[in-house]
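Exercise 3.2. Students should predict the tertiary structure of the chain below and write it as structure tokens, then compare their answer with the key that follows.

Predict this chain's 3D structure.
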Amino acid sequence: MMTSRKLLIAYSFLVLCFLVSLTLGRYDLNLTDILSILAGSQSGTMNANIFYNVRLVRSVEVVLCGMALAVSGYLYQSCFHNPLVSPDTLGVSGGASIGAIIAILYLHDTFLFRQAFSFLGGIIAVLFSLFLSRLIGTGKRTSLLLAGIISGALANSAVMAFKYLADPTTQLAVIDYWLMGSFSLINRRRLLSTAVIVLPALFLTFLYRFRLKALLLDEEEAQTLGVNIKRLNRLCIALSTLLTAASVSVSGIVSWIGLLTPHIVSLLFRSSFEETLLLSMPVGAAILLLSDTLARTLTSAELPVSIITSSIGAIVLFVFLLTKRKGYL
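Answer key:
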């Protein structure tokens, strides 16, 4: 299948999921309503307010986060030569969690503080992992993985300690809900804060997609071809960290999208590196859109989105491993 045809199929599915996300919810909007709102015939009505200030903003945010997590996951899997690596391998999610919890506990829990501290916490956690990997000093990929495990364990320990110190009647519930991920608090300003980081990072990933293919090479092969694999790894880590931290800082922990999406692309399209990278964007966004739509429509109260993504992810990963074992991949 040609790349353009694959992209057409993937983006067509994304558009379909986007329309479903816009129409479904506690307040129903059909396609006729949406067309009339876009035409301006329902200006100032409840329908227009819900469409522009709630549904559209939230759906665009979900698309950005889905693309960010999917691309980040695939970059890490390519960098570490490990199909089971996820965007939080170097501790970015754990660090972001610590930052958000500090804001919840000690900074009056305004969303601006929570987002800023979460983003900074994710960046600091990755820098700490890189520092640890230099101290460990074994093989480059091995030391990074070990450093990420250590950083993640320390972050989980800190999260549990903060939860123990939190007020169980008020703060603890807020912390637990944030750790399970949700897009319920998204507005235009938060969407903008995500877009100014995610869009440039995705654009850079697109520009460097042919160079990033060298991530699949062993270090010896890269040296033979004159590729500076260390610089390429640093670029991969920087892009992945920015994408993941920007997403986690506004939505909380969204599980499985980064790990799951490249495998779905592999199952459906049998793609090259560049194709998988490009296809991961619409596929990751579509999966997260469907998960978010289910999270806010399945029950009377909105579910944390990671409940849905984890369920879908576990099933799809099992199917992927089963088909791979039987030789279909």
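Discussion points: Residues 103 and 110 are 8 Å apart (CA to CA). DSSP finds 14 helices and no strands in the chain.
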